[in-house]
Amino acid sequence: MTSNLSQILxxxxxGKTGRxxxxxxxxxxxxxxxxxxxxxxxxxxxDRATWEPALTGMEAVYIVDSMGxxxxxxxxxxxxxxxxxxxxxxxxxxxxxxxxxxGTWWMRIEEAVKASGLEWTILRPSWFAQNFTEELGMFGSxxxxxxxxxxxGNGREAFIDLEDLAEVAAVVLTRQGHAGRIYVLxxxxxxxxxxxxxxxxxxxxxxxxxxxxxxxxxxxEFTAAGYPDHMVDDLHDLYEHxxxxxxxxxxxxxxxxxxxxxxxxxxxVARTDFTxx
Length: 277
What we know:
Elements: E1 8-11, H1 18-27, E2 33-36, E3 41-42, H2 51-55, E4 60-63, H3 71-84, E5 89-93, H4 96-101, H5 105-114, E6 119-125, H6 141-144, E7 147-150, E8 156-157, H7 162-174, E9 181-185, E10 191-192, H8 193-204, E11 209-212, H9 215-224, H10 229-243, H11 253-258, H12 265-271
Parallel strand pairs: 1-2, 1-4, 2-3, 4-5, 5-6, 6-9, 7-11
Antiparallel strand pairs: 8-10
Helix pairs in contact: 1-7, 3-5, 8-12
Protein name: NmrA family transcriptional regulator
Domain NAD(P)-binding: 12-133
InterPro entries: Ergot_Alk_Oxidoreductase (IPR051604), NAD(P)-bd_dom (IPR016040), NAD(P)-bd_dom_sf (IPR036291)
């Protein structure tokens, strides 16, 4: 079995998960190589000339994919290159819904990681608590208009705190004993989007509300905004996963890796600076 590793590449290292993984590695005494389109070590999935320089000299890689149908082929080629450059361990950020929906291009990415011939670990987190307040995207309306309209109904989700995800990733990147494992990660409590928005409203002192809408209404809105059909289809798979409560049951992946309970949604809310939103 491969020993503990210290030469770690973090893809998406300036993003929502990657920067936290890099910080968790630093706290553990490891100085990671942070790679992104905006970092000193440049990495871009669409520019293959950036791949090998980022990989050279590395022992383990935290992988965030390009979030598109081309990702399975990219991951297969990247993993082969990683093996040729001496990488020994891959840790791939997947998602809990992907494993439970199945049969999609997301699962083909996982299969490409498994087929790499390297040590691999797959992380399948629930929806991120920080989606409500960071890199807002489709959640931006919550703070712009006071309303968040999504086709999730009253379905509950066991939102995970990204600080937990980062600590888990740092452990499986550097320490032995996690090869060939898939860790499903969640928070300890299930909330509907309405419940989550209510907690945010109380903590921020702002009149926020969640508005359930139909899948058809959501499609019309996103199509009018110029989103491609495949992206809307993927989102609808994820929203149906929530509305059907297929990810509502908390799981113990965080405890399994870290030996402690996962942080509650209320912990994330208490740490949030609402003055910047």
